[in-house]
TrEMBL record:
Record-level GO BP terms: CAAX-box protein processing
Free-text cofactor note: Binds 1 zinc ion per subunit.
Family of this protein: Belongs to the peptidase M48 family.
Protein name: Integral membrane zinc-metalloprotease
Cofactor or coenzyme needed: Zn(2+)
CDD domains per record: M48A_Zmpste24p_like
Length: 419
């Protein structure tokens, strides 16, 4: 059984690397061609950033592979002996914290390089070492408290319930839904400051737009994203009374009010179409499948690994194999997400104006240094949003046949009349 899992994980790893190689080769050629949606210099910079980021991801994938081999052959046995763990619930929690800690230490150099070298070089990150350390302390404290409770409950189920994988799924699915409820109002404010949008014509227009689609929310808030990052974004999150619309302060600085309303219209499209519930449903299917398959691994696997089948080891093995199983679902989840994004774009263009949404998307691409092209295979697997050129084309603007050097307002002479 161990050999089969090793082969499957090897195939999974090399497929990921192959897709990355195809993406790097594609962008390397395209970034030297005629620019789209930005100046030639910015186009080349965006392509170079995408390539460097993908190469870093490839290195991380290789490290993950070797770490998997190490865990499956000697790592679990080493951790068990080091922590002197047994089959009790408390010892399972200790084992899981040890497993997570090793993964954190191994992955930390990649995160530091991404944040303080790559993103700093291209003007994205504004995070200081002090702010980074504070964020890590907050995250660690929250994980130890809440993660410890979840680990304890899950380990207790493994030890005491025969069909533990089913009740383990119920536990984690419930936790995931609860996180969606409390994230906007309890978790997110721990890391960022959320300021209610000031009374203005923009706020009046936003509230009118929200009322028009029947959205009763906790309010519209501005997030101080600029203290960490320069990229533009907005999102709609939460369930029940915790629902709120969040606009990044970086977005408000770069977009006009009409463009902001169009972006908000897109987010309201997700609300109107029930996309949050769809995403929760898909997450539930993935989670159930994961518990069903990985929660019924044969005892012979652990014998081959030379370890006892304790609660901590079983849960850690599930976590170790989850990326493999998730990868199988990735194209399906990405395809559904892209479909939802097209529908939200249509909704947003009708609510906030097609021209305004097109203009906003073009600014997002330029300000976020997002390379507008992708290898089809890479987009098929990983793109939760359609490539921006396809989104624009769906809205009536074909960048491949239009002059990108025209003034921003001038692009619309090529579009059919209307919003």
């Amino acid at each position: 059984m161990l050999e089969i899992i090793m082969v499957l994980f090897t195939v999974y790893t090399f497929l990921k690397l192959y897709i990355s190689v195809m993406q790097i080769g594609y962008i390397s050629e395209e970034k030297n061609k005629e620019a789209m949606l930005m100046s030639q210099d910015k186009y080349a910079i965006a392509g170079t950033y995408a390539i460097k980021k993908e190469r870093l991801g490839m290195l991380s994938t290789l490290v993950d592979y070797f770490m998997f081999v190490w865990w499956a052959t000697i790592g679990f046995a080493w951790l068990t002996a080091t922590l002197q763990t047994d089959s009790s619930v408390v010892e399972a929690v200790v084992f899981l914290f040890g497993f997570i800690a090793v993964g954190f230490v191994i992955g930390l150099p990649f995160e530091l390089y991404q944040t303080f070298k790559l993103d700093k070089e291209y003007g994205f990150t504004k995070t200081t070492p002090k702010l980074y350390v504070i964020d890590q302390i907050k995250s660690t404290v929250m994980f130890v408290i809440f993660g410890g409770v979840i680990f304890y409950a899950l380990a207790w189920i493994v030890v005491n319930v025969e069909s533990w994988w089913l009740w383990g799924f119920v536990l984690l699915f419930t936790v995931a839904v609860l996180i969606n409820v409390i994230y906007p109002t309890i978790i997110a404010p721990i890391f960022n400051k959320f300021t209610p949008l000031e009374e203005s014509e923009l706020k009046t227009d936003i509230e009118s737009m929200m009322n028009g689609v029947g959205l009763k929310s906790d309010g519209v808030f501005v997030l101080d994203a600029s203290k960490r990052d320069s990229r533009l974004n907005a999102y709609f999150g939460g369930l029940g009374k915790s629902k709120r619309v969040v606009l990044f302060d970086t977005l408000m600085e770069k977009l006009t009010n009409k463009e902001l309303l169009a972006v908000l219209g897109h987010e309201l499209g997700h609300f109107s179409h029930g996309d949050i519930w769809k995403n929760i449903g898909m997450m539930g299917v993935l989670l159930f499948s994961s518990f069903f398959i990985l929660g019924n691994l044969p005892a012979t696997l652990f014998i081959e690994m030379g370890i006892e089948k304790t609660a901590g080891v079983e849960i850690a093995m599930m976590m170790l194999l989850l990326p493999l199983l998730s990868f199988i679902f990735t194209p399906i989840l990405s395809s559904v997400s892209r479909h939802n994004e097209y529908a939200a774009d249509k909704f947003g263009s009708e609510l906030g104006g097609k021209r305004n949404l097109i203009s906003a998307l073009m600014k997002l691409v330029e300000e976020n240094k997002s390379f507008p092209k992708s290898h089809p295979m890479y987009a098929f697997f990983y793109y939760t949003h359609p490539p921006v050129l396809e989104r624009l084309k769906e809205l009536g603007y074909d960048a491949s046949t239009m002059n990108e050097e025209l003034p921003r307002d001038g692009i619309f002479q090529f579009m059919d009349d209307g919003k």
